[in-house]
Amino acid sequence: WEPIITFVIFLAVSAFIVFRGVNKGIESTSKIIMPILLVMILGIAIFSLTLKNTNDAGEVVTGLQGFKIYIVPNFEGLTIGKLFTVLIDALGQLFFSLSVAMGIMITYGSYVKDDANLGKSINQIEIFDTGIAILAGLMIIPAVFAFSGGNPETLQAGPSLMFITLPKVFASMGIGTGAGILFFVLVLLAALTSAVSLMETSVSTFMDELHWSRGKASFLMAIVMIVFGSASSLGYGVLDFIRIFGMNFLDFFDFMTNSVMMPLAALATCFLVIKVVGFDRIAKEIEQSSKFGRKKLYNFFLKYLAPICLIVILLSSIANVLGIISM
Fold this sequence. Notes:
Layout: H1 2-20, H2 22-49, E1 52-54, E2 60-62, H3 63-71, H4 80-98, H5 104-111, H6 118-147, H7 160-172, H8 176-210, H9 214-233, H10 249-277, H11 279-286, H12 295-321
Antiparallel strand pairs: 1-2
Helix pairs in contact: 1-2, 1-8, 1-9, 2-6, 2-8, 3-6, 4-10, 5-8, 6-7, 7-8, 8-9, 10-12
């Protein structure tokens, strides 16, 4: 039951930051956490490349070999089905990484001043999101590959890669305790920024629609998070025997949010912009402060390509879980 204690502490910190508000809570905290996060990611990524290990066959496997596995595409045995699976996984990851269809972008966007350069902000988000994602893979893949003795199967463990495989990697290292602490502090800080953003979205909705105080809305969301978060925090522990479609609570919630709820919310957003808000109002909002250079591309994607991709992601994910197709 120890995970419950640490989860409640984490929740209390998240709720306190949101309760403090946008400027005093979220902005001031992010200014401290994000630079620390970047430095830690860079440090561990560089360290991962220096790792060496000897496998059962007596071969020396290095982090640089893992880096090659990570960077260099391998087209051997590639089929249409496998390519489709990779594309679906990549699109699903984009939802999570860019916080699409979670309400975060809309919530934070509502706090932006009218004179803010939206075009420049979009470019910065794209560059930093992609860069951090590459560094995150560089931080994990070479280390796991080296200490698995070069077994690529260990790189396909999903969410358990972080919570089960990586601790074993750190336990095998000479300075494993220090490296493990550093890595999971990094994960903690990253999770904190995400939790605060998600909680702020719900809190701001209650404040705007029901005219609640920030304190009342924060308290309600804390209760909701305790209920659902407790099941997830014990998903690999005492509640591991409970399976939903073959998944424990954490994996199930991960599937529901990333593969079902976010595509549905994104489809609803496309419909909202196309049928209710209209492209002209979107363009007018952006052109207040910057040139809308992607206007035609945006219209085409939102009207045609995005809905098709979203429907494919949704149906394929559900079919995979039900065993109709294998991904």
